[in-house]
């Protein structure tokens, strides 16, 4: 059985002290990762493995970890709540276990893959972006920058509430199944007459190669998929879109904003089923 690198109460301290090839074993449980003034740890040592023994919950309050080494591996069941991970240029994260990421803070990103970075998803990934109470939130569950790659072999689940679940300016290679629930909200209950938008996937000059089944449920003033000009969606598997914009929103029902918003190019040999 792998041995812990350092017997620290916080995972971030063990990562800070890790050397090349180290395996950091974390017992199942809940860990508060940040001090009063949070600052991410930048890992520059190579071939580090973070292994969870049992379900591990890391409570974060902003940027947590920057991978700035050729290879970093996650194994086991890991949940990141309230913060996220940056994959730097030239770095590859190998996700071999189940990973859950939730972001609710204003202008926060759960995972950012910088230009030249790669995320290799072999396990199950769950992404939750946005505030549960519907407050305005500029949040991204995942942001894949230009010239970055996300290769999805495992199952992907995205819940986006007034936020963007997956923002892609680089390349997303979908080989596994993906399910998304996207929710916006009319703001009349607060005496306002605006909208809180939600989007499942936004391609901003990006490319999505869809070779696995995709099911998107877009509810209440939201876009299932938003393709900007210069984006490409290559669809080689089935897509099911459940579009529902009729809720208790008298001011917005006529807008029909639950939609597939397209300015880019779609190649579509497989069927799309609208709910």
Automatic annotation (TrEMBL):
UniProt superkingdom: Eukaryota
InterPro entries, sorted: Pectin_lyase_fold/virulence (IPR011050)
Protein's UniProt name: DUF1565 domain-containing protein
Source species of the chain: Acanthamoeba castellanii (strain ATCC 30010 / Neff)
């Amino acid at each position: 059985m792998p041995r812990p690198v350092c017997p620290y109460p916080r995972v971030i301290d063990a990562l800070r002290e890790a050397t090349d090839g180290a395996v950091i074993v974390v017992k199942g449980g809940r860990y508060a990762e940040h001090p009063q003034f949070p600052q991410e740890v930048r890992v520059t040592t190579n071939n580090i493995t973070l292994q969870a023994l049992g379900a591990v919950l890391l409570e974060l309050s902003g940027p947590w970890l920057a991978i700035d080494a050729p290879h970093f591996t996650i194994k086991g069941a890991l949940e990141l709540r309230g913060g996220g991970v940056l994959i730097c240029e030239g770095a590859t994260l190998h996700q071999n276990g189940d990973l859950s990421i939730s972001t609710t803070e204003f202008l926060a990103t759960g995972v950012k893959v910088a230009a030249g970075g790669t995320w290799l998803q072999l396990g199950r990934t769950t992404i939750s972006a946005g505030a549960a109470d519907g407050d305005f939130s500029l949040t991204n569950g995942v942001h894949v920058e230009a010239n970055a790659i996300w290769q999805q072999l495992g199952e992907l689940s995205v819940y986006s509430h007034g936020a963007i679940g997956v923002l892609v300016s680089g390349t997303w290679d979908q080989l596994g199944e993906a399910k998304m629930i996207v929710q916006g909200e009319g703001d009349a209950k607060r005496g306002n007459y605006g909208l809180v938008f939600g989007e499942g996937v936004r391609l901003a000059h990006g490319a999505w190669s869809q070779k696995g089944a995709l099911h998107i449920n877009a509810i209440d003033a939201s876009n299932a998929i938003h393709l900007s000009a210069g984006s490409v969606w290559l669809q080689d598997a089935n897509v099911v879109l459940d579009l529902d914009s009729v809720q208790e929103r008298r001011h917005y029902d006529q807008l029909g904003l639950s939609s597939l918003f397209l300015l880019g190019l779609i190649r579509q040999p497989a069927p799309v089923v609208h709910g």
